[in-house]
Structures are given as C-alpha cells and as structure tokens.
Amino acid sequence: MNSAHPNYTVLFLCTGNSARSILAEAILTKVAGDRFKAYSAGSHPRGSVHPLALDMLKAKGHDTSALRSKSWGEFIKPGAVPMDFIFTVCDAASRETCPAWPGVPMTAHWGMPDPAAVAGIDSEQRAAFKETYDIMTRRIEIYTSLLFSTLSKLSLLNELTQIGRAA
Description:
37% helix
C-alpha cells in the first residue's frame, strides 16, 4: 500500500464476475473517488454482466460503460496492476485456490448470496439485486471510512473481516 498517497487498488472476486463483484467494482468507483481504483474479476467468468446488475447500477447513477466480465488471469499476468486489497464476494470463490497475487495484497471474504441465482418473478429478482447492492454499499462505505494510517496490519485485517460480516 502506498502510504505517501492513499491511492489503493482493490479487486473484487467472484466465480462468474457477472453480478456481485461487478456491483462492488461500480460502487467503490463511485463512492471512493480517486482514493481507490476498483476492479473485479472471476475465476470462471460468464463473459457478460448480468442485465439486472446493469439495470440496478444505471438506476443508481453509475457509469456502466467500462464494466465487463473478465478473468482473474488479467490480474496475475506480468505487468498487471498490483492489488492492495482483494475481497472475495461469493462463497465459491473463497473456497477456490487463488493464484499468487503480485504485491501480496491483504485479503478478506465479504460473501453474500448470489442475486443472479434467485428464481422467480422479475420483482423478486430485482429485489435480490437491490439487497445485494445495499449490503455492498454499506460495506464499502465502512471500508472507505477506515483510517488506514492509524491501523496496524493485524487491526486492519480484523476490520476487513468484520466488514464482511456486516449486513
């Protein structure tokens, strides 16, 4: 982490990189300004962003033009941007063997149910995306309000773990 200028890089991981991790990337980008640079990826990306994730983000005023479903392989190849933080946002990704990340980022699990897995009528599916958006927004707001310079590495890791339990 660059202590001279608090500009942190953050990668949100999920298996498919179509909903939760995409939502997190967009939320952090909007909430954090230039203090953080957000990315998302999947271990087995679906190749497209879920339409209801895009609808939710657009309804909340997010720019979705640069969002795409991508592999975590983009972030481990030579020359990739080193990450300061990596958050797994689905249970499947937290159980997978992750690659060796350049820069040895701090990691935490912020799992939550997959809104894309909700079967039912349109209003039920949209409600699941709204709930995921709201939970992720609260977590990211707590995360971005942390005073990184005052926390030891162990204290910061504890804080990140606690944020992942926030609903």
